[in-house]
Design goal:
127 residues, five-stranded antiparallel sheet
Length: 127
Amino acid sequence: MSVTLIIFVAVIVFGLTTGTITTIMAFKLLRNNKEKHHLRKSILMDGIPTEAIIHDIVQTSSSRDGRPGVRLDLTVTQVDGRTFPTIVETYIPITRIPHFQKGNVINVRYIAMGNERKVEVEDAYLP
């Protein structure tokens, strides 16, 4: 075999390998995003409704459909009166920004998954 043929075969094999790996990683990312989105919707549909106090709000560098991404530092009050801290990253409609200020009380829903609690904000944007 000539050197040119060996190089040609190596380039083809490398291209096929990297293409396959890239495709697999893209499908895994899409599946994980779909599962995360489904979890968020199920929390909003089936979660326990309660209130939370905003201790801090920071705009992230992301946005979705023109809605700014924010990171909310919250203290959630459970149904039994106990509280727990959490940080939620979500997107809020521009018209709701005045409601999402430090010290305000917002409506949230949460579910307990073992020792961990997952929280979603009721007035947040979810496509």
